[in-house]
Each structure stands twice: as C-alpha cells, then as structure tokens.
Design goal:
This protein has four helices and 14 strands. Helix 3 packs antiparallel against helix 4. The strands form two sheets. Strands 1, 2, 3, 4, 5, 6, 7, 11, 12 and 14 form a ten-stranded antiparallel β-sheet that branches. Strands 8, 9, 10 and 13 form a four-stranded antiparallel β-sheet that branches. It is α+β, with helices and mostly antiparallel strands. It is 17% helix and 37% strand.
C-alpha cells in the first residue's frame, strides 16, 4: 500500500486479530476505532525520516453525540501518510491530522487548510472518510473548500485479504456540491488513477493510491469484529480563476472601449472580414455602422 509501511500494515492486522479475538469473548460489539483528531501548525519537517512535527491548537473531544474541537497545546510528531504529503506539506502550514502520533506512528488522514484563521481544507492526504467529525450525519468541521462532500466506496480483492479487510481492487468516488447535487457520480478509479472535476469556481483532482475494503460479506463469512478499512488518496481543491471578461466591441482586448476599437472595426469592415466582437448590430457581417456604434459606446453615448 503506497504511503503505508509494512510496520503500519502489521499493526493494523494485529489490531484486527486482537479485536476479533476479543469479540469471541465479549460478543459482536462494534470494533471500529476512532483515531485521535488534532489541528495545529507544522513546526518541523524531517524528510529523511518521513515525519513532521505539529504544535497543536485544538484536539477533538468526543463530548456529546459526535464531539467537538477543544483548545489544546502540544508538540506532536507524525509520519507522513504518503509521498505527496512529504513533498507538499511545509513548515507553517495549518493542518488537521487524524491518526495516532509517534511512537505509534500512523497518520490516517492529513488535511491542509488555507490558514489558522481561514479554516477550509484545500488538500487531503490519506483517507477523507476520517475527517472530523467522524460522524456521517454531521457536516465536516472544518469544511472542504467550496463546501464539497467527497465520498468513496471500494470493492475488495478477495485474493488479498486479512481476517477483517481486503486490499481494494478499485474504488468509486462521488463529489457532491453544497446544494447536494453530484458533480462527479460514482467515478471508478483503480490504484494510481486520477479523476478531475472542473467547475466554474473550483477544480478538484482525486488520486487513488491504494486502499482497503471490508472482507465481509463479499469475501469472508461470517464477519468477525474488526477495524474499519483505511484508504490512501490525494485530493486537491483549488479555486478557478475565471477568464477576464471582455466588453463587446473591445477589439484590442484592453478591457475598455475606446476610439481605437472603432478604428479596428472599420478596418475589418473595409476588408470584408468577419469578427464576432465587431458585429455589434448582430447582422452577421461587420460594416461601418458597427464601427460607428463602437465609437458611440466609447463616448458613453450608447451601451453595446
């Protein structure tokens, strides 16, 4: 699994077996784990050891039904969840981290925000399902840029399973906008593949590195208690800069209408050329009348 070393995989497998054995004694209680949640500023980066340090400002407290952020100050060391995070996360970045800090050393999800004062997540490394609140009925806190919701569902490879989870053969991702409409619906990705949504205001790219899917009931039956599957994504959400608007009749594209634009239109008319921006009256051809209308617009006598 890209971004998850062998020790981490063995630890997860160990947890899976231990919880399964516990379930044999205490019955089929839920064995889902809740990773620690923290927000803070990256204050150190050790690329050689694949780790970074964070000075936290908040930790997630499970008070109430889904929990909430509480002020907290600590210095914590974490492993990068994948190579993309190693290359792209820098000192002074403000982040949300889900997982278990060193010495346990598992970062399940790392979300980069605009800043400590503009808490919107722009980049996700790891598993987006674990972003707080880890409660499907509640909106993300902090939200994704553009208030999008990103969901996925993975299909297991039954030839590569542990007791609880299998490696994912592929995953299907869905991007839902703030109004609840699907912008990308159930797009299939195999490990290493990327899909991109390009909207009027935002661009979202999702790369599926690798992941897990529940072994039960597709591959294993009965279903022992065990930890939920963990997947490894890289997601970037960016604001799209709209192209500059050019007024009709702005022939030299300097953003304003001047007599120079009228001269250009008259030149086109004299040569019998075609140009949509110069055809002000919409008759399908450029004439001296169009040039005159542009001149009038330059003098603020008419609007075109």
């Amino acid at each position: 699994m890209i971004g998850m070393n062998e020790n981490t995989k063995h630890n997860i497998f160990g947890i899976c077996v231990a919880v399964a054995l516990l379930g044999a004694f205490v019955g089929c209680a839920s064995a889902a784990f809740n990773p620690e949640g923290h927000m803070g500023t990256v204050v150190g980066k050790d690329s050689g050891n694949n780790t970074f340090e964070v000075r936290t400002t908040h930790n997630w407290s499970y008070n109430g039904s889904c929990g909430e952020w509480q002020p907290s100050t600590a210095i914590m060391e974490w492993p990068f969840p994948n190579e993309d995070a190693l290359n792209e996360i820098d000192v002074d970045d403000y982040v949300e981290i889900l997982g278990f800090p060193e010495p346990y050393g598992q970062t399940i999800c790392l979300g980069k925000m605009n800043s400590s004062t503009e808490k919107v997540i722009t980049d996700i490394y790891g598993d987006p399902n674990f972003l707080e609140p880890y409660c499907p009925s509640e909106p993300l806190d902090p939200p994704l840029l553009g208030t999008f919701t990103i969901k996925y569902s993975s299909t297991p490879n039954c030839s590569d399973c542990s007791m609880c989870n299998c490696e994912a053969n592929y995953t299907n991702v869905t991007i839902i906008n703030e109004a609840g409409q699907a912008e990308v619906d159930d797009h299939q990705l195999y490990p290493g593949q990327t899909c991109t949504y390009e909207g009027m205001e935002y661009r979202i790219s999702i790369t599926f590195h690798s992941g897990e899917a529940p072994a039960c009931p597709v591959c294993n039956n009965p279903c022992p208690p065990g930890p939920q599957p963990v997947s490894n994504f890289v997601i970037h959400i960016k604001t799209v800069t709209p192209p500059p608007t050019t007024p009709r009749g702005d022939m030299n594209h300097d953003g304003i209408i001047t007599p120079a634009d009228a001269v250009i239109a008259l030149t086109i008319a004299a040569s019998g050329g075609e140009n949509y921006d110069a055809d002000i009256d919409g008759d399908g051809k450029v004439t001296s009348l169009d040039g005159l209308m542009i001149m009038q617009a330059a003098a603020d006598n008419i609007e075109i």
